[in-house]
């Protein structure tokens, strides 16, 4: 084969964009980060005890994670400051935006740290580097603000652009975490769409132990089933946080004496009657099913929708 023909069949090298994807995927398997992750996770868990503050940082009252929308403040302010830095006579406005971004970065980081402490290890590895990028950006913008406040506009702008580069790198990894690794996404929402409308036979009612959750299959869908006396509660078994098996969870009652299940993986707590979230890290309601018992003693379920 001549040289020209061999060039035609040569495998092309990876594009720059593919190298970026490969690098992000490589971080998922970077075991060298695990020791640091263990130290930080246990410190976060010791500091942020379960309760209203932690639930708010997760975003439980809002119905979805708080961290992603909070990032809009520092990211928006700092990108806007970068645009102003390219224009003459905008030093004061840029300085205010840098300071506003730093103020917004504090709750953003706390919410992110809280979410990160309850992720899978692969997600935590990417998340750690994402957080390092954002910490670097915050440090550079802090230095930029100090320089600008002392009248060193040129240095302040240069530090701002360095911070912007760190921000974009960290932001890319945040996207990888959210959209490739599905951190923060609802992992149970599809269940309600996979079951046809109408009633479906599930199992004999006599097979269900009283007060003890069990796992039942409806076709290929896994369901959490709990009988309490005459009532039968049915939820999707995949936890909306990260798909943990709810039927292996603890049964508790909340402050209003309503029966709840606690996910065995990260402690999300759902009311069994309707799947609503009592405690995070889950923020999405667990899909629930109506149930009834036929005259033949068969439990039937249908999706609520
Ligand atoms: S999978 Fe994380 S709390 Fe259920």
UniProtKB/TrEMBL annotation:
Family per similarity comment: Belongs to the bacterial ring-hydroxylating dioxygenase ferredoxin component family.
Stated name of the protein: Rieske 2Fe-2S domain-containing protein
Record's keyword terms, sorted: 2Fe-2S, Iron, Iron-sulfur, Membrane, Metal-binding, Transmembrane, Transmembrane helix
Cofactor: [2Fe-2S] cluster
Transmembrane stretches, start-end: 159-179
Rieske domain: residues covered: 200-300
InterPro entries documented for this protein: DUF2231_TM, Rieske_2Fe-2S, Rieske_2Fe-2S_sf
GO molecular function terms noted in the UniProt entry: 2 iron, 2 sulfur cluster binding; metal ion binding; monooxygenase activity; oxidoreductase activity, acting on paired donors, with incorporation or reduction of molecular oxygen
């Amino acid at each position: 084969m001549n040289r020209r023909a061999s060039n035609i069949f040569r495998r092309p090298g990876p594009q720059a964009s593919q190298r970026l994807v490969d690098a992000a995927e490589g971080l998922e398997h970077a075991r060298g980060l695990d020791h640091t992750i263990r130290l930080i996770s246990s410190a976060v868990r010791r500091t942020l005890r379960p309760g209203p503050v932690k639930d708010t940082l997760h975003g439980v009252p809002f119905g979805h994670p708080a961290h992603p929308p909070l990032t809009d403040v520092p990211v928006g302010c700092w990108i806007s400051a970068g645009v102003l830095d390219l224009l003459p006579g905008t030093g004061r406005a840029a300085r205010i935006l840098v300071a506003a971004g730093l103020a917004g970065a504090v709750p953003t980081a706390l919410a992110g740290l809280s979410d990160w402490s309850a992720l899978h290890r692969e997600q935590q590895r990417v998340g750690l580097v994402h957080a390092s990028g954002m910490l670097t950006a915050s440090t550079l913008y802090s230095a930029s603000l100090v320089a600008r406040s002392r009248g060193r506009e040129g240095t302040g702008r240069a530090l701002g652009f360095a911070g912007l580069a760190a921000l974009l790198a960290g932001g890319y990894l945040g996207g990888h975490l959210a959209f490739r690794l599905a951190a923060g996404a609802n992992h149970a929402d599809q269940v309600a769409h996979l079951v046809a409308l109408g009633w479906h036979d599930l199992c004999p009612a006599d097979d269900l132990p009283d007060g003890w959750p069990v796992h039942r299959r409806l076709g290929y869908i896994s369901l959490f089933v709990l009988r309490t006396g005459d009532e039968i509660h049915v939820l999707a078994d995949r936890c909306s946080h990260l798909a943990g098996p709810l039927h292996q969870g603890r049964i508790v009652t909340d402050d209003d004496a309503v029966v709840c299940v606690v996910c065995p993986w990260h402690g999300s707590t759902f009311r069994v009657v309707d799947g609503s979230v009592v405690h995070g890290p889950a923020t999405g309601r667990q899909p629930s099913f109506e149930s009834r018992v036929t005259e033949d003693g068969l439990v039937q379920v249908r999706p609520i929708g």
